[in-house]
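=== RUN LOG ===
request id: a7f3
mode: sequence -> structure
chains: 1
length: 130
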Amino acid sequence: MLMKKIFFLILLTSNFVISQIYFPTNSQVKTVNNSYQAFTNATIHVSPYNVVKNATLLEKNGIIIAVGQNIDLPENTRIYDKSGKHLYASFIDLMTEFGIKKPIRNSSTGSRSAEYNSSRQGYYWNDHIL
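=== RESULT ===
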């Protein structure tokens, strides 16, 4: 009887020991991406006055390495065909007003009126409820 208790105790404790990770690692969470990416056959706007058509943009780790039509690509380059697409070398500012027409306000006297005509006198929060 004592041997059975010892056996089950060893079995139970060994299960807990196996399930524990001794040193936590974060190596599986992030991957290091050191490959080049090339976007080919695109219209690239280098600046507002400099537009290169049918060009290639080479980037590595989010940094632009080269822009042009005859670029030598390294061996480990991923190539993306962007035919008919336009590439800009910056983020688009969401708060800009460039190219947006200002809205035209309705010419009103400034007083607010009811959204619908009611058959009762006065404005209530819901005049259809008695």
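=== NOTES ===
Residues 2-19 form the longest helix (18 residues).
The longest strand covers residues 36-47.
=== END ===
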